[in-house]
Amino acid sequence: MTDTEFIARHKSDDVRKLALGKIPEGIDLPFSLQQIEGWQLACKKIPRWAETEGLLYPPRLSMEQCSSEKTALYKRQLVQRVLCDEMGQMVDLTGGFGIDFSYMAPLFDKAVYIEQQEPLCQIARHNFNLLGLQHVEVRHSQAEDELENINEVSLIYADPARRDNAGRKVVLLEDCQPNVICLQDELLTRSKVVMLKLSPMLDIRQALRQLRNVREVHVVSVDGECKELLLVMHQQDTPFCYHCVHLSDSIQEIIVPETWCNPVICEKEKTFLYEPNASILKAGVQDALCEQLGVEKLHPFSHLYTSSELVADFPGRSFRILGRSDFSKQGLRTLLSGVKQANLTVRNFPASVQELRKKLKLSEGGHLYLFATTLKDESHVLLLCEKAKID
Question: Which of 156, 187, 316, 381 shows the smallest number of beta carbons within 10 Å?
Answer without folding.
Answer: 381
